[in-house]
Amino acid sequence: MAKLYFRYAAMNAGKSTALLQAAYNYEERGMQVALFTAAHDSRSGRGQIGSRLGLTRPAATFGPETRFERAALPAGLACLLIDEAQFLTPDQVLQLHRLAHVGDLPVLCYGLRGDFRGEPFPGSARLLTLADELEEMKTICACGRKASMNMRIDAEGRRVLEGEQVLIGGNERYRAVCPSCYYAEQGVDPARAPGLFG
Ligand SMILES: [Zn+2]
């Protein structure tokens, strides 16, 4: 029977690269895949999955209204791959779990576990609950420890501690950090401590 997979990480761990590699592996064996990414993610243009290594591929987009059902997907599909899976609604995660177990379609979700405040994304919380296989993709903090948290940095390079979970069209950036640096740097202005923040 097929499974629902959640491969999660902090920012910049290579999630999109891993997704594109998984798609390639299926297609190399003559199998058909479908790719989805969040509709509001415009980093690589609308309806594209882009990896930081330079690979990009067109992808269908999902919004909160998208329903993941067998009838809405191409026949003969071997796998569903979803990038930015933290933006799925909890109900969509349930639909994907059902697709795997009732529709016998493997579903691979790639996304963030938590936001810059250390809060779970609702979709990620549901994925962590329902996924049959969980895999943490590792990335490294500037200090060398494993990065598991995300810091939000504003356009002026200052750390942001509060705000909306999702900003549409903002100029904020994120940095993956280890928990020690996450707490050590709380309240520190990165613009005044450039050595600490690379
Ligand atoms: Zn660190």
Keyword list:
Rossmann fold, disordered C terminus, 198 residues, 23% helix, alpha/beta, six-stranded parallel beta sheet, single chain, 2 domains, three-stranded antiparallel beta sheet, 25% strand, binds zinc ion
Question: How does this structure look, described?
Answer:
By secondary structure, the chain is an alpha/beta fold. The protein has 2 domains: 4-136, Rossmann fold (3-Layer(aba) Sandwich); 149-197, no CATH class. Helices cover 23% and strands 25% of the residues. The chain is built from 5 helices and 11 strands, in the order βαβββββαβαββββαα. The strands form 3 sheets. It has a 6-stranded parallel beta sheet, with helices on both faces. It has a 3-stranded antiparallel beta sheet with strand order 10-9-11. Helix 2 (90-101) packs parallel to helix 3 (122-130). 34% of the residues are buried. Mean pLDDT is 89; it is low at 189-198. Zinc ion is lined by residues 141, 143, 145, 177-178, 180-181.
Largest sheet: 6 strands, parallel
Low-pLDDT residue intervals, each spanning 5 or more residues = 189-198
Structural class: alpha/beta
Measured as a percent range, the helix fraction is 10-25%
Beta content comes to 25-35%
Bound molecules: zinc ion
CATH superfamily of the largest domain: P-loop containing nucleotide triphosphate hydrolases
Radius of gyration over all CA atoms, rounded: 17 Å
Task: State the distance separating the first and last CA atoms.
Answer: 46 Å
The overall average pLDDT, rounded, is: 89
Query: Quick one: CATH class of the largest domain?
Result: Alpha Beta
How are the strands of the largest sheet arranged? 5-2-6-7-1-8
What would you say the CATH architecture of the largest domain is?
A: 3-Layer(aba) Sandwich
